[in-house]
Design goal:
globular; alpha+beta
Length: 320
């Protein structure tokens, strides 16, 4: 696998960015993760001399934009319903003509909707597990169509919120009840048994893959954000396999209309070795457990430089 090379920084002068709002917190189910990510981003920006200020949630940002308090926004809100990954806050920033990090309205909205993302991927021949939309009256029939085991999850949540892995008929109703606590449609997909991998995207390049090895059976919310015994192997694969997972991840990111930076989650079937795309994240975590910083580090980009490079993208795409 060839060594990644990144272009030189566009600028080393923090004054170029002016006043930067770091948009964090919000009211989504991922608020606590976003607050943690935001604290790390602010610390990294300030360490390089950037005038960075925390702004908690979309209403506070709207007021700040009206008052013209900021020149650009580093969006590290996660999720939807008051999070920053569903296109709503992107539309607000476009309306004010304020540059911001990450994907635009279309890429954000599509990436947050797992069902429609899968529809786009399948239309382009990109591999993703077969799925069905769920309502409580058809859950057992759908499971029979797909074949157990299956995964049941909300179509519009992240961070493994509301997800159940179901191996027998008895667990289906409970899985649907859990997922139904969250807004939006429910999704059932064939469970891919094998390695869980993720590929970070920075600019127009895929970072080294990460293979995730949780201590328990599943890479759930606890394994992602709390447990200290989850292993992250980077790069997660070698040779042609590593090249292929990066290729399909970058293709999936672009197909979803995403830009700037993000992360694509992938499963690799244990028996066939085939890759299956799960979802795209348009404002990935930047916590001590987060995966994009780990992959960037493997590619020779430290956390402060990663944050700087993401912010630099607002010079490229003012408000596309």
């Amino acid at each position: 696998m060839s060594t990644l090379t990144f272009p030189p920084l566009r600028t080393t002068d923090p004054a170029v960015f002016g006043r930067v709002a770091v948009l964090l917190g919000g009211t989504s189910s991922e608020r606590e993760v976003s607050l943690d990510s935001g604290r790390n981003v602010i610390e990294a920006l300030r360490a390089r001399g950037v005038n960075a200020t925390a702004v908690d949630g979309i209403p506070a940002l709207a007021l700040a934009l009206v008052e013209k308090r900021f020149d650009r926004v580093f969006n590290i809100l996660h999720g939807h319903n008051g999070g920053g990954e569903d296109g709503i806050v992107q539309g607000l920033m476009e309306a004010f003509g304020v540059p911001y990090t990450g994907s635009d309205v279309l890429g954000s909205a599509l990436g947050m909707d797992k069902i429609r993302t899968k529809q786009v991927w399948l239309s382009l021949g990109l591999p993703t597990p077969q799925y069905r939309k769920v309502d409580s009256t058809t859950v057992h029939a759908l499971a029979a169509e797909l074949g157990l085991p299956v995964v049941v999850k909300p179509a519009n949540e992240g961070s493994s919120v509301g997800i159940s892995r179901v191996t027998d008929e008895a667990g289906l109703d409970e899985a649907v009840a859990l997922a139904a606590r969250y807004d939006g449609q429910l999704l059932m997909e064939q469970m891919v048994v094998g390695d869980e991998l993720t590929v970070g995207i920075l600019g127009d390049q895929a970072l080294p893959s990460i293979r995730i090895v949780p201590k328990g059976q599943w890479y759930d919310y606890n394994a992602k954000y709390i447990a200290e015994d989850t292993q992250y192997l980077c790069p997660g694969l070698e040779g042609d396999d590593e090249a292929e997972i990066r290729r399909i991840a970058l293709a999936a990111f672009r197909a979803a209309g995403c830009r700037g930076w993000g992360r694509v989650d992938v499963m690799r079937d244990r028996n066939s070795g085939a890759f299956y795309l799960l979802e795209v994240n348009t404002a990935p975590g930047m916590t001590s457990h987060s995966l994009v910083p780990k992959a960037a580090g493997q590619a020779g980009i430290g956390f402060e430089e990663l944050v700087w490079r993401v912010l630099e993208q607002t010079l490229e795409h003012p408000h596309a």
